[in-house]
Amino acid sequence: MKNPYVLDACGLIAFLSDEEGSGKVESLLKKAEKLECVVYMHQINILEVYYGIYREDGREKADEVYDKILNLPVTIIEKLDATVIKEAGRLKAVHKISLADSIALAETKIRKALIVTCDHHEFDVIEKNKELKFYWIR
Length: 138
Hints:
The chain is of the alpha/beta class.
């Protein structure tokens, strides 16, 4: 599909919490509804969102948000194949990023997509290498 994007946890959190940059995520999701693009998200990155909400607000709120995520026009990647494992492992080793971030970036690279994020702290150095393309929401 044309115009692929991979949504990382901080991008989804910004959208769900109506933080700065949420409008850019909302715009992408509206395009995905119209099949003008595809927005992917790995279930490991959804887990990041779920456990953060669970820790802060409890199970009921986490379950509510999880159900909301499942109803978004996002293609959830459930598989962790060898190609992703190897690329995520390389990215994690080279850039010393979290496991979940390495999976999101590996999916981005393999799918020739843009990573939808606001995580400058983790990704600015990686962007400088021009190895991946970023869609910064703020």
